[in-house]
Amino acid sequence: MFRVSSVLCFLGVLVFLSGCGDEPAADRPQQEPVHVASPGAESLIPRSVLFGNPERVAPELSPDGATIAYLAPVDGVLNLWLMDASGDNPRQLTSDEDRGITQFLWTEDGRYILYLQDEAGEENTHVYRITVETGEVLDLTPFPGVKAYVSATDRDQPGRVLIDMNKDNRMFFDVYSCDLETGELEMVMDNTGFTADGDMIVGFSTDEDMNVRLQVTIDPDNGDMTVHHRWTADSPWEVLKSYPGQDQWFPDRFDKEGTALFVRSNLDRDKTALFRYDIASRTETLITGSDTSDIGSVLYDPSTGEPVMASYYYLRRSLEVLDPSIRADMDFLQGHREGDLSVISRDSSNTLWIVAYNTIDNPAVYYLYDRNSMEARELFTAIPALEDYSLRPMETAEIPARDGLILPSYVTTPDPVRYGEGPWPTIMMVHGGPWYRDYYGYDPLTQLFADRGFAVLQVNFRGSTGFGKAFCNASFKEWGRAMQNDVSDGVLWAVEQGVADPDRVVILGGSYGGYAALAGAVFTPELYCAVVDFFGPSNLITFMETVPPYWKPMQALLNMRIGDPEDPEERAMLEERSPLNHVAEIDVPIFIAQGANDPRVVQAESDQMVEALRAMNIPVVYVLYTNEGHGFAHEENTLDFAGRVEEFLYLSVPGPGIECELFTPVPGASVLLQGTE
User: Fold this and answer.
1) Is residue 562 domain-resident?
2) How many domains does the chain have?
3) Catalytic residue among 511, 578, 606, 652
4) What is the span of the domain harbouring residue 570?
5) DSSP secondary-structure letter at 63?
6) Which of 357, 389, 399, 401 is the most exposed place for a label (fewest CB within 10 A)?
7) Averaged over 589-614, what is the pLDDT?
């Protein structure tokens, strides 16, 4: 059973803040990259190891447990492969030569694999069906400019799936039933956009038989949310729960009988917990919760539909077994090897599991676990080449903000034998979202910088998710202020601890982190010697005016969290907190990277910032990736970006104690380099 509520598509707006703009003017001066390398560069971890495609990744068991699908590169592009569960007989299934494949799932009978793919980073994903036996590919949603995704499957109805798609109105997703053999689509729920009382319909959820049973709406004026329920397709919608937009009451799934919901809720509490909600009686029963962090992933039994395990994540990941039937399995697996453990795939009998261990040294080591024999066999490691190098450990820290809020954080320092004891040049690396978070574990950028002689600081500033409602809500309308103060306080803490050299701190980030990097340059220029922004908004007004159309139903929540551009006072606040309007404060070099097809933070956000910087004669390197969106899908672009950033920092950060691998532009990278002035 695969189940995704379509409202997740809209709530995803609040996780990643990620129209093409015009091409750069022909008369802008171009600059050839400088080729540099430090004397010890031959002993550095190559960027090709850190940023190249993984060797194999994302294994998924077929329903019968006989076959494993996984992703592996072919000529630098990730494609689907198959192998027997024994590990034998690997064979290539797809032959994509462009974007690569990153999201896929088996159908319930194992005849097909479905995968999602857009064209050039614009995020209008199509749903493709590939026949496992023949390799035949069919686009199930062949509609230009439309975003589609699989929202539900049912093992009792293996011949069809539900697909959510915004074909009729780009703001709203309808629900379609898709016949997997013929590809025929039939609308089963028309999203009319609005309810009779004027609320906007942001999504639907289904029960275990793929019946549409829940409808989620939002009040466009104040962001209040309402979950409606119906028993059958002929029943009227009834209000199940209403709550303020700053709270959460989110149904995970129905139980097997369809009479109760498993709900993530922080109503009347700070940390989100898992509840069972009886629909008929409107009563809730707590299943599990924590005083230190929100509930994370929940593992459900594929046969009973009951929750069997939950995870929590404060500074490190912890697991709570909810069903004694898997206690022995988890005890064995947690003792089998080091690393944060995740169960990522199971066969339909729940006998075979694929588990992954995440460590500082590797993003994932995968094992096939047989519950009957209690034996675990290693399948493969995502990046085996990392085993030839020594990666730097990550330390946890709790950093006090100036108002007393505790910021869960991570610090990675360079090898003191090679680079001496601190303080070191330091990267303040700000995560995106901002309603996301930094985690403990392997990160290629962190390891790149630490290997080159930088300390790396990652601060979960207010607004980061997983630390409770009060921590998240403290970020409302605090872009460029309290949220930015948390980042600054992290830097000051690192200086005080003897980690960061105060004259050699770089602020770097993508998406919201890119905004924070620009904001650091204009609001606290004394803290930083260089700035790296990728995919970051520069003007909060123009950013909010150009979000994708399917974000529009959640506009009230964006206004609540960032600020309302239609309110004169808040518009003035947004203008004041936009880095574009303060470029005169910048006196350090800046590197900006942008995807030309980014639908979340459009190219104009970077274009206008670069134009303003050049008008003030502030040194800026601008790299436009013409076939990317809000992030990187092409290996050559990822490698090119990493090389350009490494070279930029080597040339921009003063003083000794930094090393650099030789940078040569990556052949095939789709780059438009808009030099420096």
Assistant:
1) yes
2) 1
3) 511
4) 13-47+387-674
5) T
6) 389
7) 98
Alpha-carbon distance of 323 to 303, in angstroms, equals: 13
**pLDDT tens across 620-630, in order?**
999 999 999 99
- What amino acid occupies position 256? K
Q: Which amino acid is located at 398 in the chain?
A: E
| pLDDT, tens digit, 9 for 90 and up, residues 67-83 | 999 999 999 999 999 99
- pLDDT over 90 for what percent of the chain? 93
* Range 406-418 average pLDDT: 98
Instruction: Taking residues 174-201, report their average pLDDT.
Output: 97
Beta bridge partners, 412, equal 394, 456
Which candidate in 598, 607, 634, 652 is catalytic? 598
In a domain, 409, yes or no: yes
pLDDT of 42 reads: 77
Query: What type of residue sits at position 336?
Result: H
Rounded mean pLDDT of the chain?
Answer: 94
126 among known catalytic residues: no
- pLDDT tens by residue, 334-380: 999 999 999 999 999 999 999 999 999 999 999 999 999 999 999 99
User: What's residue 221's pLDDT?
Assistant: 95
Which tokens go with 517? 């990097």
For residue 552, give the 3-state DSSP assignment.
helix
Pairing state between β 590-595 and 200-206: unpaired
Banded pLDDT at 673 (limits 50, 70, 90): confident
pTM, 2 dp: 0.94
Instruction: Quote the radius of gyration of the chain (alpha carbons, Å).
Output: 25
Residue 320's alpha-carbon distances to 275, 310, 342, 379, 504, in angstroms, are 15, 5, 12, 25, 42
Do 239 and 247 touch, CB atoms closer than 8 A?
no
Say if 37 falls within a structural domain.
Answer: yes
| Contact assessment for residue 159 and residue 109, using Cβ atoms and an 8 Å cutoff | yes
**Residue 522: inside a domain:** yes
Sheet holding 185-189, edge to edge: 148-152, 160-169, 172-179, 185-189
Query: Which has more confidence, 4 or 391?
Result: 391
The 3-state secondary structure of 180-223, one letter per residue: CCCCCEEEEECCCCECCCCCEEEEEEECCCCCEEEEEEECCCCC
- Annotation says 489 is catalytic: no
Q: Is the sign of the CA dihedral 609, 615, 618, 622 positive or negative?
A: positive
Give the pair of three-digit tokens for residue 553: 């139903």
Find the CATH number of the domain harbouring 25.
Answer: 3.40.50.1820
In degrees rounded to 5, what are phi and psi of residue 319? -120, 145
598 catalytic, yes or no? yes
Rounded to whole angstroms, what are the CA distances from 305 to 6, 29, 349? 20, 61, 13
> Is residue 460 within 8 Å of 409, Cβ to Cβ?
yes
